[in-house]
Amino acid sequence: MNKKILILVITIIFIGCSNSKPAETVGIENSKDSFQVIIGEEFINKFLGKIGKIDGESRIKGKKFLNLIKIDENVKWSFYNLKMEINRDGAYLNGDADIELNGEKIDTKFRAKAEFEYDNKNEKLLITADEIRVKKLWDINLSGFYSPKFDLKISNPLNKKMQIKNSDGTIREIELETSAKIECEDGAVKIVMDLN
């Protein structure tokens, strides 16, 4: 009887272990010579959600209706519902824009190429968006009013001074300096740091 219970327990353990999946590292390559920080797309989108609505008023000069009518007046604008879309080919900032010009109001969506950079000195992930254009009755470059620039504090644990205790009890200080580069993965931004 005890043998049957033991065999049953071992069989259950074996089946349970064979069905368990290993931890997934989607889009993350292990590197023996670097330190990596991965920031997920959803984390960035939560950050952008905390920023909320960005609005203002600017003076606009341009043309509309086949370049026949000149525009030289104030425009009210706002950006909201900002979301980042990140894949291996790059990143895009998507959102909604409201524009009010000469009594006309346009609600539209926008999509702009986004760039990431890591400021190693100030330990910040910098997020910028390129040209944001709305082509409705007029062709307006919204980034002329406001160029989205966000910085997210991401500490670099390697960018510090470190104390080493020698065998004779004396302490010496070494400085760890790193260089960093950015890589876009599906659904994440990866900061790859290496010691200089």
Characterization of the model:
There is one protein chain. The protein is mainly beta. Helix content is 15%, strand content 55%. The protein is built from two helices and 13 strands; from the N terminus they run αβαββββββββββββ. It has helices at 2-19, 41-51, and strands spanning 35-40, 54-64, 69-87, 90-101, 104-119, 124-129, 133-135, 139-141, 149-153, 161-165, 171-175, 178-185, 188-195. The protein has a six-stranded antiparallel sheet with strand order 2-3-4-5-6-9. A three-stranded antiparallel sheet has the order 1-13-12. The longest helix is centred in the N-terminal third of the chain and has 18 residues, at 2-19. Mean pLDDT is 77; it is low at 1-29.
> Would you identify the regions where 5 or more consecutive residues have pLDDT less than 50?
1-29
Beta-strand segment tally = 13
Helix content: 10-25%
General form: elongated
Structural class: mainly beta
Biggest sheet record: 6 strands, antiparallel
> Which strands sit side by side, in order, in the main sheet?
2-3-4-5-6-9
Short summary of the structure?
The chain is mainly β and about 200 residues long.
Fold topology:
Layout (H helix, E strand, L loop, with lengths): L1 H18 L15 E6 H11 L2 E11 L4 E19 L2 E12 L2 E16 L4 E6 L3 E3 L3 E3 L7 E5 L7 E5 L5 E5 L2 E8 L2 E8 L1
Antiparallel strand pairs: 1-13, 2-3, 3-4, 4-5, 5-6, 6-9, 7-8, 10-11, 12-13
Jot down its keywords:
196 residues; 2 helices; disordered N terminus
